[in-house]
Amino acid sequence: MTASEMEPDLLDQLGGPDGLRRVIDEMYVRVLSDPELSHFFAGVEMDKLVRMQTEFFASITSGDIQYTGADLTRVHAGRGITRQHFTQFVSHLSEALHSNNVTPLAIDTVLGRLAMYSDKITGSTNVDG
Length: 129
Ligand code: HEM
Prior knowledge:
Blueprint: H1 3-6, H2 10-13, H3 16-32, H4 46-61, H5 72-76, H6 83-99, H7 104-115, H8 118-122
Bound molecules: protoporphyrin IX containing FE.
């Protein structure tokens, strides 16, 4: 028996692929109406971003899905994204999860997994050494 057969995927606790897509859609509605964050997304093809972001979240919450998009360090480098921006972005995710009835425990688990990517996104490891 594999680990994924013993334990339900975290993705299931987010409502499966369709539930996740609703969460990501809502997260970007919140991000794009946040004056501290919206300018980062000017001119970005949002359909593609939502699709790739949904795939990324599926990959960190399910053993069965692989992320096929751009390297996260490369795609965020040079954009001036600070830890404060990261934290604020994640708070919109957290609210989107809450409003889609994801349990507090599942939300904590998702946020814990995301924290591992904060250096890649804020460039802490690739700007000025
Ligand atoms: C939870 C943290 C984050 C994750 C997991 C994440 C992940 C991603 C992914 C998967 C993509 C798509 C890559 C592709 O097209 O192949 C992307 C693109 C992008 N991200 Fe993030 N991101 C995060 C936080 C942020 C933050 C905080 C900002 C800015 C405030 C940001 C700005 C962008 C922009 C502007 C793009 C579009 C790049 C383009 O297509 O030109 N991201 N991100």
